[in-house]
Structure formats: structure tokens, C-alpha cells
Amino acid sequence: MPSDSLSVLEKGLGIVEDPNSPTSPETDNSTVASCPTENSSQSSPVEDFPEGFPRLACFLDSDESFMLFKRFGIVFSRLLLNKQDEIRQMEDELQGMDRMDNTVLANKAYLLSRDEDVKRERSSIPACWSQTRPQLLEKLETKILEYSELLLKANQVKALEKPSARDYRSVLHYMENDGGQMFEKDMSWIYDKEDLVSLRPGREHAWLDGMLERLLKVCRCGFVRYIFCTPETNARTDNPAIHYYDRRRIAKCVTFLITIIILILLMIPIWLLYKSSVKGTIGTTNDTIVMILSFTLVFSAALSAFTKAKRHEIVAASAG
After folding, report:
1. In terms of pTM, does the model score above 0.85?
2. Which three-class secondary structure state does DSSP give residue 10?
3. d(Cα 175, Cα 31) in Å, to the nearest integer?
């Protein structure tokens, strides 16, 4: 377990800071993530839980940004390969049965009728068969269903989002400091970053969200806490150095900022074209096209940077 201790830790859309550490923006290495709302299942402060796994579980549950877990990708692959090979062996056995019956004229009826195959006398089964074909098919059905279920589960886990660098640092710093009472082997999973997934929902958490959260680190005045905190978020912890912020208020602020930016990008080219036409200085059609094209590109870039809009959504918005 790393021995470096941080003077400022990250906690959700809250800030965890050491009262004895500098708080200037230059020295502040805390970050802001998301924060639980009053609908959170957690009802007690993190500090009320025993040290170790109980407190860590409470911390991870305190905010969806902190719900990072291993996906065990190699284990999933190994299990899938194992079941895949079991099914392959059973498939080879089934095909061998079919070929053997197909070479004997009297046994072809067992391939043409399922009822005949089910009613087949034990004495007519070749000695090299360890089971009847219906018995093999029944086992094969069980195996293929298990394999399919595991395959779909692996696909669902693989589709989960990887944690952002901000969320990963929050959990990592907590486990190395507040959660440092755990044994090294029990917290080694947090260092396998490539195998971690986040249970955080897929709501846009893009560049603008991160900028606002970093701004909250710097502006920690009472007015900011009044705007972005609620009585419920203030009750999340007993530690006076920890500040939680309400996720929904952050989302509303980000939506408002995006709306203002989009309106500005839409209105500026219209205003420029209007001013040019009134003054009689509007250029050729090529100049007009270049101006419109430039602002369309800026508009598309803004959508890409400020939101998690998909490609076809950006294309549709730009065409509109």
C-alpha cells in the first residue's frame, strides 16, 4: 500500500480537506465529484461505521461516482472458454452419434424421428456410447443455456463505463488515507485501474461538469454552499472539513450554462450577418458561407466538448 498521504482528499461532490493544509488554489489538490441526494440509501455519516470494509462500503455507497468495482474480465474470459470447450466436446459427441447412426441403414430411423430415438432400446445403442442421444441433448441444453447467460452477463459488465480519472482518484485517495486501515492485500484491487468499472449512470459528465466541479474547489464561500448544498447533503458527514454538494443543483447549473453557450453560438452569426447587411459591408456569397460554416463547426465542437452527445446527435443538431 502506498505510503504517501495526501493533505487533501477527494469525496464525492464534496471536498475533503485537512484543516492544517494550505487552501490556496495553487496548493489545493482536492477535487470535486458528484454528491448524494436525499434519496440515497445511506442514512448515517461515513464516520459512524467501523473501520475497514464496513466504512469503505458506506463510502462507496455514499455517491454513485464512488461505486467502482472490478469487472474480473480475465475470470469471465476463462469461464467462457471453459464452458465453450465443454460444449464443443458435447457437440463433437453428438455429431459422432449422428454419423454412426447414418452409416447403419436400420438406425437411420432414429435420425428421422425424435419419438423413435427416445423409445430406442438400450440394447440397440452402440457400446461406445456413454449415454443416449436424448440424454446428451438434455445435458447440452443445460450447458448452452449456462454459457449463453454467462456470455450475456460478460457483455453487460464489459459495457459498463470505465471510471473517470477524477472519480478514480477520489476512491484511491480515500482508501489510501481514510480507508488505510485495510490490509494491503484487501485493497490491492483499486490499483488494477484497467479492470475497474463504474456503476455511475450514463448522464453527461463531460468537460463542463468537470470545470464546474473544479471551480467549487476554489470558491468555498458560504454563498456557494448555500446555492449548491442542502440540509441533507450537509448531514452526510460529521467532519467539518468535508463538504458535499447536491447533484441535482450541479446538473441544473450545467444545463443552464450549456443553454447560454448554445444560444450565444447560434445568435452571433445571425447578428454579424445582420450588422453587415445593414451597413452594406456584407461580402460575397462565399464570405457568408464561410462565416456560417465556421460557426457551425464551433457549435459542433461545443456540443462535443460540453456534452456526451453521440455522433449522429451532433450531426443532426448541426444540420438543423
Report:
1. no
2. strand
3. 15
